[in-house]
Design a protein that fits this description.
The complex is a heterodimer of chains A (452) and B (296).
Chain A: E1 5-9, H1 19-33, E2 37-43, E3 51-55, E4 59-64, E5 68-70, E6 73-74, H2 82-91, E7 96-100, H3 105-114, E8 120-125, H4 134-147, E9 152-155, H5 158-168, E10 171-173, E11 181-183, E12 187-189, E13 210-215, H6 224-237, E14 241-246, H7 252-262, E15 268-272, H8 279-283, E16 288-291, H9 300-307, E17 311-315, E18 329-332, H10 336-351, H11 357-367, H12 370-386, H13 392-400, H14 406-427, H15 442-450
Parallel strand pairs in A: 1-2, 1-7, 2-4, 7-8, 8-9, 9-12, 13-14, 13-16, 14-15, 16-17, 17-18
Antiparallel strand pairs in A: 3-4, 5-6, 10-11
Chain B: H1 27-31, E1 33-34, H2 43-71, H3 77-102, H4 110-141, H5 147-164, H6 181-198, H7 204-227, H8 230-248, H9 253-277, E2 284-285
Antiparallel strand pairs in B: 1-2
The chains are: A alpha/beta (452), B mainly alpha (296).
Chain lengths: 452, 296
């Protein structure tokens, strides 16, 4: 498809480290490699990460001054982003906005404003949410309001798609009896990917001890309670097992206490916080990766471990059953006995030498490749660009159907947004803006730097 | 030559020929389970549970009527003191009977029971004397505040008491339930309210009578109420409601009518609304829920 200008909008971007951030960066880098122009819009991290920065390979990042409230997320706004967004989108001649993460209010706002400038919208959801607690009910309603008029939604797993469809009300009730749920045709599933070159398996070492690696944030959500309950049992049942635990968090205390209580200081090693660059060097020290998280939308940590040649043991939650074939992963229900059973199975499998790290690496390399994911994403962009944009009346009628109270509220927001936009068109006219002329040719850059 | 398209599988690692936005029919419905933990409410069960709230409200109404009479000096404080003492003795007797019948056939040691009785007696005398000595102080505590603020403050505090009170019941034997913060807060609110109201009274004896009555009704009486068996509960509710109405009626028939309305609404109307609202229950469970880890 012909090159277009894409703006990635998310609250979560570098210098913060995380799954969403690296996903946005890798996707942007690969899109640039395919010839498109990509910019990223995110909020600033004062005092020093402000303004406009360039990241390799030719990725322009706008750091907008917005105040964050908690863990990198800004307050839900509806109008304050419009002046910045309008200026940026017009200057950079953007064709399509790709917003990431349901908790990112910048992304939601971007989707709300984009239609005023004729820019298309795509939304990617990375996480799973519940329906019951007060925070979920509110964020789901906000999400439903935003996704009412988005052009395409991408989810990272099939479970994630079901969750997003139900939360954002992306379905219609069919006419027959009993009414079935017909999902809209613009919801796609494109998994995450990883750079397999960074997770090569280590050299094979013949030794009797089998090391189980656990690498995660030590929080309740990651199921550290299960780890604390099963580790002593495993150490008692299998004398040749060692544990290697990396990461930090509030549950570190529980692990330390368990280690003291069962006197396992020589069997369980706690490494503390591990940087993402060092993850591979920790992973190749082991042959089994254990993941006990209680909810996981995709599980990129599991993939990284499998790519580095480890056999995986994980709880059967969220999107985890979809990511690896049965012979590379053992599943367990989230209770102590079943986790013990699964780990024992894994240990006997690995001790018998039935798991080949090199072959596992090759397989994961083929399954989850950034080039493939980018190509699938490009197809979504292409479909979106070809389709017709909904006109304002259509948008208003769709928004009014949100609910008895939410519908009128969101419609009012939409109309005031249009008025605000008209005001900005008068106050900061387009003719007076500095347009960006962007002559970045990735192939020329590659040949210039490598072809010497 | 036709190539058969393999059926769609819910996996991400396979390169499937289906497009990315393909979702087979019924895939969404099969993942989610609606209202799986749903146990519908039945009307009479809810009425039975709301008796606790009615009793509490009736107690508050009785207290308010007593206060108004004390203020008008139509009730002699000494009569109130004797009535409270009588109620205290009756209540303590009932408590002892319940303790005896509900415990495992009187199995606990005689010595410890004696100790408990002595401790109870000591603490009641202590509180009695403490209140008696504090009542002059309490009378002038909020004397400077205007009456309107007092009524408003008292109303807010009683509202807080009603909202935060512990309406559960303890069916099992002599079990000491851990006090939640909210039930302690509600008791404090009730006592503060009665202290605040007491400042409107004219002599120390009246203040003492009121505070003693309030301490009894809001701290000791709820404990007794919780221990009572089921048929007694209904009888007690009835007795309390009727007495609150009888006490309020001579003072102002509008207020008595309002009391009646509130009591009926809480007991009969509110459960009906709750049962009606059940049809909106929409609990969705699916593979995206956070699992609850089960450790032995």
């Amino acid at each position: 498809m012909e090159p277009i200008s894409i703006a990635m909008i998310a609250d979560f971007f570098h210098p913060d480290v995380g799954g969403v951030e690296s996903h946005i960066y890798m996707l942007s880098a690969n899109l640039i490699r395919m010839g498109h122009k990509v910019i990223v819009i995110t909020h600033s991290r004062p005092p020093d990460r402000v303004g406009i920065r360039w990241l390799l390979p030719g990725l322009k990042v706008y750091y907008i001054p917005f105040v964050t409230i908690a863990s990198g997320a800004t307050l839900p706004n509806f109008f304050t982003f419009l002046p910045y967004l309008r200026t940026i989108l017009i200057r950079e001649h953007v064709h399509l906005i790709h917003a990431h993460a349901s908790l990112s209010s910048l992304g939601h706002e971007g989707i709300l404003h984009a239609h005023l400038m004729g820019v298309r919208t795509v939304f990617t959801d990375h996480s799973l949410f519940g329906f019951e607690d007060a925070a979920s009910i509110l964020t789901n309603k906000l999400l439903a309001g935003t996704l009412r008029n988005v052009d395409a939604v991408i989810c990272v797993s099939h479970t994630g798609r079901e969750n997003t469809v139900l939360r954002g009300e992306l379905f219609e009730q069919s006419e027959d009896d009993p009414p079935r749920l017909v999902v809209s045709s613009n919801v796609y599933v494109i998994p995450n990917a990883l750079v397999s070159k960074r997770f090569q398996p280590g050299l094979l070492q013949k030794s009797d001890t089998i090391t189980i690696v656990v690498l995660s944030r030590l929080a309740y959500r990651k199921g550290i309670d299960l780890l604390v309950a099963t580790a002593p049992r495993i150490c008692a049942a299998f004398p040749n097992i060692r544990f290697l635990v990396g990461g930090d968090g509030p549950k570190l205390i529980d692990l330390l206490q368990m280690r003291e209580k069962y006197l396992l200081q020589d069997r369980i090693e706690l490494l503390g916080p591990i940087k993402h660059n060092d993850a591979r060097s920790v992973l190749i020290k082991g042959s089994i990766f254990m993941n006990t998280s209680l909810t996981e939308s995709f599980g990129i940590a599991i993939l990284e471990a499998a790519c580095a040649g480890l056999y995986v043991v994980s709880t059967r939650v969220g999107g985890v059953p979809e990511i690896l074939p049965e012979d590379m992963i053992s599943f367990a229900d989230p209770n102590e006995d079943d986790v013990f059973r699964a780990v024992s199975e894994a240990i006997s499998f690995v001790s018998a030498g039935k798991h080949d790290p090199i072959k596992a690496h090759e397989r994961v390399k083929r399954f989850y490749d950034w080039a493939q994911v980018t190509e699938r994403t490009e197809r979504v962009y292409h479909t979106v660009m070809k389709s017709e944009q909904r006109d304002l009346w259509d948008r208003i009628t769709r928004t009014m159907r949100l609910g008895r109270y939410a519908g009128p509220i969101y419609s009012i927001i939409l109309l005031v947004d249009c008025l605000f936009f008209l005001f900005l068109e008068w106050w900061m006219p387009r003719e007076d803006m500095d347009f960006v002329t962007h002559h970045w040719n990735h192939r020329r850059f590659a040949s210039a730097t490598q072809g010497l | 030559m036709s190539t058969k398209i393999p059926p769609w599988e819910k996996v991400l690692w396979k390169n499937q020929p289906h497009p990315d936005n393909y979702i087979p029919e019924g895939a969404l419905e099969s993942s989610l389970r609606k209202n799986s933990n749903f146990k519908p409410y039945t009307y009479w069960h809810l009425v039975h549970l709301s008796i606790a709230i009615t009793q509490h409200l009736a107690t508050i109404f009785i207290f308010l009527s007593v206060f108004v009479r004390l203020k008008d000096r139509s009730l002699d404080p000494r009569v109130l003191i004797f009535v409270s003492l009588g109620c205290f003795s009756v209540g303590y007797f009932v408590w002892e009977v319940l303790q005896y019948t509900q415990s495992s056939g009187g199995g606990s040691k005689h010595g410890s029971k004696r100790n408990e009785r002595v401790k109870t007696l000591k603490s009641s005398i202590l509180i009695f004397l403490a209140l008696m000595s504090l009542s002059p102080v309490l009378r002038t505590l909020s004397a400077a505040t205007s009456s309107d603020s007092i009524w408003a403050l008292s109303a807010c505090l009683f509202l807080l008491n009603i909202l935060l009170a512990d309406y559960g019941s303890s069916n099992s034997v002599a079990q000491v339930r851990p006090e939640r913060l909210t039930s302690v807060l509600s008791m404090n609110a009730a006592i503060s309210s009665s202290v605040v109201l007491a400042s409107r009274l004219s002599n120390d004896l009246a203040v003492f009578a009121l505070i003693q009555f309030s301490v009894q009704s809001f701290t000791l009486f709820p404990m007794l109420r919780r221990r009572l068996q089921v048929p007694m509960q209904a009888l007690l509710t009835f007795a309390l409601s009727i007495s609150s109405l009888i006490l309020a009626a001579p003072l102002s028939s509008t207020i008595a009518f309002l009391f009646l309305l509130v009591l009926l609404a809480i007991t009969f109307l509110a459960p009906a609304v709750l049962v009606w609202a059940q049809k909106y229950k929409n609990e969705i469970r699916g593979p995206w829920d956070v699992a609850v880890p089960k450790v032995n």
